[in-house]
UniProtKB/TrEMBL annotation:
<protein>
    <submittedName>
        <fullName>CRISPR-associated autoregulator, DevR family</fullName>
    </submittedName>
</protein>
<keyword id="KW-0051">Antiviral defense</keyword>
<dbReference type="Pfam" id="PF01905">
    <property type="entry name" value="DevR"/>
</dbReference>
<dbReference type="GO" id="GO:0051607">
    <property type="term" value="P:defense response to virus"/>
</dbReference>
<dbReference type="InterPro" id="IPR013414">
    <property type="entry name" value="Cas7/Cst2/DevR_sub_I-B/Tneap"/>
</dbReference>
<dbReference type="InterPro" id="IPR010154">
    <property type="entry name" value="CRISPR-assoc_Cas7/Cst2/DevR"/>
</dbReference>
<comment type="function">
    <text>CRISPR (clustered regularly interspaced short palindromic repeat) is an adaptive immune system that provides protection against mobile genetic elements (viruses, transposable elements and conjugative plasmids). CRISPR clusters contain spacers, sequences complementary to antecedent mobile elements, and target invading nucleic acids. CRISPR clusters are transcribed and processed into CRISPR RNA (crRNA).</text>
</comment>
Length: 306
């Protein structure tokens, strides 16, 4: 194995609408939101929400095994007889299995940390209290009844989230270690899913595929670009702010510039300042598809598979 470049991380920008709702109040469906000191509210899709759709789509496309949970101990969790050998989800996203005997396993649970880390998907544009008024008048009219009313918060925005994968920990759990071909296959399938990720919500299917992505393979599993993605907008359109990104790619780790292993992927026609990234990254600005092909190539090289 290539022991140096053992991890990959990338931050994605996507565009979508109203991705994740909370509990709500009365007949108002509220989006999940955060408040910053600038006085603005920003909507977000939780990492659990992203994980749900990654696993759902991976099961549809690649047959990931989801029949791995039960409620035999009073709470829904992964089954005791299932290991990472049986479950791609447990391998990549970790697990916790509670144990009834408090004296066992230091607190009564078996755990394994996730090898794939997801951040929340945070909106890059503030929420401005847009609402959608809904009713079921069409159905109510059929039986001469008054319609039911609802108010639903709406937010169309660019969002950003970050994925970090420690390749050295994939396929390993206690006395289990999977074949390198299986390790590589699982990571590659994950990357293929993220490239075309979508979310089914309230009768809509939102496209969560990347419009912009930056990252690569590195010597450490660190989310270098998390919190460094900002949006600029004016009458001519949108731009990805390069100031914070420039500071990251020009910084050094173990004596090497982060830029050496970093690529940028663009979908053309969305952001107006692609040329700024070309000047910053030279020949490392590619299409989104080429960006993921580079990652897949690196994964195969790390695990020494074809």
């Amino acid at each position: 194995m290539n022991s140096k470049l053992k991890a990959l991380t990338f931050s994605i920008v996507l565009q979508a609408q109203s991705l994740n709702y909370g509990e709500g109040i009365a007949n108002i469906s509220e989006l999940k939101k955060l408040t910053r000191s600038d006085g603005n509210m920003y909507t977000f899709a939780s990492r659990q929400c992203l994980r749900f759709d990654i696993v759902r789509l991976a099961a549809e496309l690649f047959g990931w095994n989801l029949q791995v949970v039960d409620k035999s101990k009073g709470t829904v969790q992964f089954r005791d007889d299932v290991t990472i050998e049986d479950s791609e989800e447990m391998d990549l996203f970790g697990y916790m299995k509670t144990n009834k005997k408090e004296t066992e396993n230091k607190g009564g649970s078996l755990t394994r940390e996730a090898t794939v880390r997801l951040s929340n998907a945070i909106s890059l544009e503030p929420y401005r209290s847009d609402m959608d008024f809904l009713n079921n008048k069409g159905m109510a009219d059929r039986i001469g009844e008054h319609p039911n009313l609802a108010n639903v918060e709406q937010h169309l925005s660019f969002y950003t989230y970050t994925v970090t994968i420690d390749l050295s920990k994939v396929g390993k759990d206690k006395d289990i270690e999977l074949d390198n071909k299986i390790k590589a296959q699982r990571v590659i399938q994950l990357l293929e899913v993220i490239k075309i990720l979508n979310r089914n919500i309230r009768g809509r299917q939102e496209n969560l595929g990347p419009l912009f992505v930056i990252g690569g393979m590195y010597e450490v599993a660190n989310p270098f670009f998390l919190g460094r993605i900002n949006l600029k907008s004016n009458q001519t359109g949108y731009e990805i702010n390069t100031d914070a990104i420039k500071s990251v790619v020009n910084s050094k780790f173990l004596g090497k510039e982060i830029k050496q292993n970093t690529y940028v992927g663009f979908v053309d026609g969305i952001f107006n300042n692609k040329q700024e990234f070309v000047e910053l990254m030279n020949d490392k600005v590619v299409s989104v598809d080429e960006f993921f092909e580079n990652l897949i190539k690196g994964v195969k090289e790390y695990y020494e598979v074809q």
